[in-house]
């Protein structure tokens, strides 16, 4: 099958840490898995660097960099005016020898470009949003900083696609509230690289204190402030926060300073350690060094951190929402607490850190759960069946 994966953003920045490029990794892994199954896969992303080649072959699939807009990094809001040109470029490209049998849009920007490109053809469109503006706005409130046109354009995009792929049950519900029929929403969670994330291997250095690890970008809404407040109830343990800029730049980072001041005010500054950006290929060592991984973002559709931690055999304490609620089985692979309930979060962490046998049992169950339900092979297989279904049921467009 010929598959076109469209991401109207540029590829991940060179040298960026894995905490900022999770969705790009998702697209690349889906492309590689589909190519390994014998499909002809092409990934389309915006060219943001004139020194990059127009095309490249990676892991069996082809990357085509679309020369739309300035050859420089652009924020999402500045990509919107280029969507039509991106779609027109794709339509022209697909009018030649190679035309996809199915197009899969990623992010709302990529979905808009994909839908524009095939609007006068019988090529079906599958869409993965990765996050939804209306849901982020609900959870983040004033901290939501998405473009103003995002939410109405996402709603319009739901009417232009054949099927939407949700990554968690909360997202399924949200998409149906946006107007999609339930039969037009498929739940396909993200996968985990179990060759990279597993219990056996090196662990990052640590001292004798129990370690709680939090992983995520340093920006409001990722929940680190809740963990810092909860540390007052945890006792003698350290909270390690991985993410944000490189360690050498933390002193000039506004959110890092805010979190440091919050730790001082709560009397837990000696227990809180910010380590900055960690390359994704080193994250497994940090997960293995932890007694518990805490996942407390205000919004998380994929739950990637909880899955990677579980694959490394580490129990997760997380907020019962989004992908975290799907991944973590309460009292089996970790504990779920009500979002924003700092007191319950602190008490739960303290009790789990004091329960060696419980953490051991949760960790073993977590590894089994990931290997049974969250492998990339399973994700690619589900998408393959989905593509086959939409291709078979799409009827050719009648001549005008």
Automatic annotation (TrEMBL):
GO MF term list: glycosyltransferase activity
A biological process term (GO) from this entry: carbohydrate derivative biosynthetic process
Protein name: Glycosyltransferase
Alphabetical list of InterPro entries matching this protein: Glyco_trans_1, Glyco_trans_4-like_N, Glycosyltransferase_grp1
Boundaries of every Glycosyl transferase family domain copy: 206-356
The organism's place on the tree of life at top rank: Bacteria
This protein's UniProt keywords: Glycosyltransferase, Transferase
Statement: the UniProt record of this protein carries the keyword Transferase: yes
